[in-house]
Amino acid sequence: VQVVRNDSLFAIQSRILQWTDQQPKPPSLIITLGGTGFSARDITPEAIKPILHKDAPGLVHYMMSISLQHTPFAVLARPVAGVRNQTLILTLPGSPKAVPEILPPLLQVVPHAAVLLQKGSVPH
Q1: How far is CA 83 from the centre of its chain?
Q2: Mapping DSSP to helix (H, G, I), strand (E, B) and coil, where does residue 33 land?
């Protein structure tokens, strides 16, 4: 686990690119925490979106649906999910309450996504 504690677009992008573009084995999953709200410092979505090769809107909808079961303030979140190379990238809110609500259900589907990214296809 590595941490970027800098609300700089460049710092976030540089670290993510360093991880996803490493050879021969990039990580199958990167999860960011925080920076997805409305404050001026919340720039994680703006850092992540431009470097994705594929969006994963279904995962974003899933994260939102989970969050909305716990709080109406979930509508203020700006999560991003997508793929760069063979790595799935998910942006979660920084709330200590929200992460344990969202992460367990997500981890039920992430392994299948990781297999698809690594192998190309899997029988359903």
Answers
A1: 9
A2: strand
